Amino acid sequence: MPAVIAAKVFAGGKEMKLSEAGLVISPETVEKLKTLCRMVFRRQNALLIICAMAFFIVAFFQIFPPDIHERIAQIRKLQPKKSFHPHGDLYENVSTIWMKFEMGKFSKSEELQANAEMERLLPLEFDVNRYFGVFNRLKMEEGYVLDYRYHLSSPEGNPILYTRKKDESRNYSIDGVRTTFRKDAADEYLLHIKTDGSREGFIQLAALHLIGANFYLYWHAFYDDLEFYSRVPASVTYYQDEVAISFYISTFHQLIARHTLRIKRNFPHKYVSETRQTIIPYLTSVRL
Predict the structure, then answer these.
(1) Which are the contacts of 155, defined by CB distance < 8 A and separation ≥ 6?
(2) CA separation (Å) from 214 to 1, 83, 262?
(3) Which of 66, 148, 170, 197 is the most exposed place for a label (fewest CB within 10 A)?
(4) How far apart are CA 212 and CA 219, in angstroms?
(5) Cβ 169 vs Cβ 152: under 8 Å
(6) Would you say the C-alpha torsion 216, 132, 191, 118 has a positive or negative sign?
(7) Chain segment 79-125, per-residue pLDDT in tens
C-alpha cells in the first residue's frame, strides 16, 4: 500500500489535507522526481538548459509566427518599390504647376489638365485601399476612402496618407514635410479608419500607421524608413480611454528601437502621442 503524503492546503478558506482531496503519491515516485530534478538542474547542465529553452522559443515562433508579421510581409509585397528617383527636372515641373494651382491661375478645364499632368509626373498610381484586404480588422468610415499625396522638394520626397470623401477630387499638393510624429498628419486618416475593437485590430492600425506610406522614398525621406523585427510580438496596453501599441523596429539611426503609438480607444481613433525609445543604436550615425 503506497504511503499518503499529507500537506495542508487552503480550499474555500478552510484547511484540508491533500489526502482528503484524493491526491496519493508513493515514496518511490517522490524519490524518482527528486533524482530527476537533481540531474536536470545540476550546475554543469545550466548552459544546456538555457540553449534548449532558447531553441524551443525560436522554434515556436518559426512554427507559429505572430499573425501581424505575416500580414506585414503581405503588405510589403503589395507596396511598390521602396525607393523613388525623380528625373532631373521633375521637381521644377511639378512645383511650377502647383504654384499656379495656389495662385488660382487655372480655369476649370485647365485645372483638370493640370491634375492629369500631376498624375502622370508623380508616383501616384498605387491604390492604398488594397491594404484593407490584408488588414482584415480595419475598415474605412462610410463614405471615405484612403489615399495619398506625394510630398516633393529638392532634398526629399515621400507619400503622405490622408482620407477624402469618395466624391471629392484627389489632393495633388506637394507641400509639407516628412510625417514622423506629426499629429495633424496622423489625424488626417486615423480619424476615419475603424478597428473592430480587438487587440489585433489596434495592432493592425498601428502597423498601417508605421508602414502605410513606407514606399517611393526619395533621398532624405529615408530617415523615416523602418523595418519590423518580424518574430517579436507587438504589445498592447489599455488605459481608461486610450490604447498604446508598441513594436520593435529598426530605423535609420537605431538598430533596435521600441516604437509606441498611443490613440483614443473608441472611434474616432484620435492621435494622442508617439514615442520611439532607442534600445541599441547604430555605431555610426550615417548608413550608406
Answers:
(1) 219, 220
(2) 71, 9, 20
(3) 197
(4) 18
(5) no
(6) positive
(7) 999 999 998 899 999 999 999 988 888 888 998 999 999 999 999 99
What is residue 252's DSSP assignment? S
24 backbone dihedrals φ, ψ, rounded to 5°: -125, 125
Cβ(175)–Cβ(156) under 8 Å?
no
DSSP 181-244: T-HHHHHHHHTTEEE-SSHHHHHHHHHHHHHTT-SSBEEGGGGG-EEE-TTSPPEEEE-SSEEE
List pLDDT tens digits, range 161-195.
999 999 999 999 998 776 677 888 888 899 999 99
Which grid cell sits at 38? 537533481
Contact in structure between 199 and 246 (CB atoms under 8 Å): no
Rounded-to-integer distance, Cα 61 and Cα 232, Å: 9
The span from the CA of 219 to the CA of 86, in Å, is 10
